[in-house]
Amino acid sequence: MKDRWGRTIDYLRLSLTDRCNLRCRYCMPDDVESVGHDAVLRYEEMMVVCQASLTLGIDRFKITGGEPFVRRGAVDFMRALKGLDGVRSVTVTTNGMLLEKALPDLVDLGIDGINISLDTLDAEQYHRLTGGGDLSVVVSALQAAVKAGVNVKVNAVLLAATRNQILNLAKFAQNMAVDVRFIELMPIGFGTTLAGLTRQECLDILYRAYPDLAATDEVRGNGPADYYKSRKLCGRIGFIAANTHAFCAACNRLRLTSTGFLKPCLCYDEGVDLRAIIRSGRPADEMHQALVAAIRQAVYEKPAKHCFGDQPDISEHKTMNQIGG
């Protein structure tokens, strides 16, 4: 469906959990508390949200967290979601620590893509940034996913501390059919406490190794990334640069937190409480209609643009794991 600004909204980012097995500095450091078990939507409750979304033409789903694979039954939920009539794609974003074990089942269910969060290839730095992660486990899972023929993307947040890792990460796209996307640090939650790099600063570094790097209009995913190609690359280099190159005019997504709060925009603490509708005790048909109406309302209220350039106007103060990646 279209929002009041004429944008087609067809993409839902669905957080299975706010919990994670890592403690990345910009997301959920050690002192972040998880929400209670009863506050999190059950899988069957998430499924009715997806069914209502499909009614409105929202047919692309990204599974996120926290870390989705720390929640028992995550793969079974993805399989069931993939099997719904009308679903165009189901993809997942993961830190990769638990991916290799889940990979055979993901391949079997026909997962449409796996995004792996990976900010550095320095093992010691990775361990420090993630609060204890094992880089070798993630790289092994990435290689296994590529070997299995899955569409793989690497998501690297642009941190000042990892400037010297940009070319190392780009080599994934050079050596394999993998897209490496560099993401400007979001000024949300603990992201406000770290120094980031801009897309242009990253490009300046990449041009040294890939002087023929050129923009391409290829569509390579569900979201806002724009991509660059080079004769030296098997994959592509992508950028998600919400701070310096806002893509609001083409934004096509909603976010559902693990607690059932539907957010039209990452920047604002505004949205619709779908959990209250789901747990209202209404008959199934009435609940479906109420969910459709609530999702339509959220789409209608989607703002024209974010305000990341005006920090005092940002009303979202939750951490990224609480929001849903």
From TrEMBL:
Entry keywords, A to Z: 4Fe-4S, GTP-binding, Iron, Iron-sulfur, Lyase, Metal-binding, Molybdenum cofactor biosynthesis, Nucleotide-binding, S-adenosyl-L-methionine
InterPro entries membership: Aldolase_TIM, Elp3/MiaA/NifB-like_rSAM, MoaA, MoaA-like, MoaA_NifB_PqqE_Fe-S-bd_CS, MoaA_twitch, MoCo_biosynth_MoaA/MoaC, rSAM
Coiled-coil positions: none
EC category name: lyase
UniProt superkingdom: Bacteria
EC number: 4.1.99.22
Molecular function terms, GO-annotated: GTP 3',8'-cyclase activity
Name of this protein: GTP 3',8-cyclase
Gene transcribed to yield this protein: moaA
